[in-house]
Amino acid sequence: MKVMLAAALVAIAGQAQALSCMQSDVARTFGWASEAEERYVVLLGAFAFSPPVKTQTDTNIPQSVRLPATFSGKYLGADGFVTAPTLDVTLNFECLAHWCGSISHDEAILTFVEQTADGYVLNVNPCHSTIFAPDDGYVQTAESCMRGTGCDERTF
Fold it and tell me: Which residues pair with 95 in a beta bridge?
């Protein structure tokens, strides 16, 4: 009985800690994107899209949902954030078990978007590692990283 109880506790503890996210940081994400083989652009603005239709699925199987979206706002260039043309972007909402990435329709965010041969893709994962609130501190950090005048991670 003790062995079964211990096994059950281990299984429950493993499920409870299945998703462990490091706190997101603009400077850390900027460094990661700069060193990646893929190309990234930093966008500040909102995405317009139609939410997916909810379906009954097995929550133990990781899934993703891809949706077309339109971005309106600014992109990060050498001179800071400047007005961007309207961009077509694919939103890739990633799920791990029952944890899914999400963003709000038409709500401003600061995000790192992958530039692929097929267009722009925003990977929205459960840890939101490439998505940030559009607060002044994050915006200033992104601009400072781009200028090379300081790209220090926040201490939490």
Answer: 100
